[in-house]
Amino acid sequence: MAIAPLFQQQLEAAEQRGRQEGRQAGRQEGIQEGIERGIQQGTEEVVSLRSRKRQQDRGRSLSFYWARIENRR
To answer: pTM for the complete prediction?
Structure first.
């Protein structure tokens, strides 16, 4: 009967290791997901800023040409 308590200890130790490994795997997955989400959001922000900058540049360019046309009249 001495085997039963030893088996119980090994089972508990294995469960503990399983929980720890599960938490670690969950953390790693969460970190990876966070990195991927951050990269995606950063990329979207850069694209948005570049688009706004182009629109501003076009607006300035058109204003410049309109001013030149108006000055010729």
So the answer is: 0.57
